[in-house]
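How a chain folds remains the central question behind the approach discussed here. This step matters because it turns folding into a mapping between discrete strings. The sequence in question and its structure tokens are set out directly beneath this paragraph.
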Amino acid sequence: MVDRFTSAPLELPGDDGFERADLIFYSIDHSGASFEARLFHDSPKADHTTTGDDPHYLGSFFIFGHGGCAGDPGHCDLPTRTDPYDLRPPHQLLPAIRVVTVTDQIKQLITSGQTTFTVTVVAHTLEDQPGDVLAFDTIRLATYADAAGGLLANA
């Protein structure tokens, strides 16, 4: 886990003919401390002092963390379920997904002539909590053609 991450370049759509753009984060680990993840475009030096007033700010998402595992051995291990008719709720530590809508910012990047952009994610925790809480598998830009949600493009 880390306290900040900068993505590889993500491809922008060829034009701004879409209704909505989302950054989607997959398989977020939320087993540690709670945190706010602040997102910035093309700002690899963004850090804990960079605020939402920065012109590169995209938005943020929040994770209510579990603060570690306190239980018997195996208590926090994810179960392997093979029964599709299992009615129990999913395990609390299954990885999370977060979606941040970034339509206006992505349209501005396209208008400025950019073809790619990077995303820097900075995790903010409470002062007495560890800062190395950020872990996820994938970040994706998805754009949608109309208000009905038709997917237009992926990056």
Notes: The chain has one helix and ten strands. Helices lie at 103-111. The chain has one domain: 4-66+91-139.
